[in-house]
Amino acid sequence: MKYKSLVISSILLMLTHVAHAEQIGSVDTVFKVLGPDHKIVVEAFDDPDVKNVTCYVSRAKTGGIKGGLGLAEDTSDAAISCQQVGPVELSERIKNGKAEGEVVFKKRTSLVFKSLQVVRFYDAKRNALAYLAYSDKVVDGSPKNAISAVPIMPWRE
């Protein structure tokens, strides 16, 4: 019983560091007579552990009746672009290599088994952050992915 509560507590603690996205726009790609159209959605999120880095993710969103009810599975197509929007401040966890390959964003793309994730890597040698977007699925994930890098440079106004 103690083990079960420890696992649940650990999962909840990990989820607190995952950013939440704000939808900034969308475009329709396929007209659907019943239910919402298929679309490409553009969302923005700020890295929860790196001050002044914002990432923009575009992803496919399935419409139709199933999509309108939240039962459809979105495709694994996504793109990402991350930008420095002010002076970058890395947390000590990142500087010390304790946040290597950390999930910074996760969005459900099917009812239960599939999600879009963004993972951050710190490249200390080149003084840059790399953000990898990919889709995973419990049984069969997708090799489709996108990457964006943010050089950590002095900020000029």
Automatic annotation (TrEMBL):
Keywords: Signal. It comes from the Bacteria. Residues 1-21 form the signal peptide. This is Protein CreA. PANTHER family: PROTEIN CREA (PTHR37952:SF2), PTHR37952. Pfam families: CreA (PF05981).
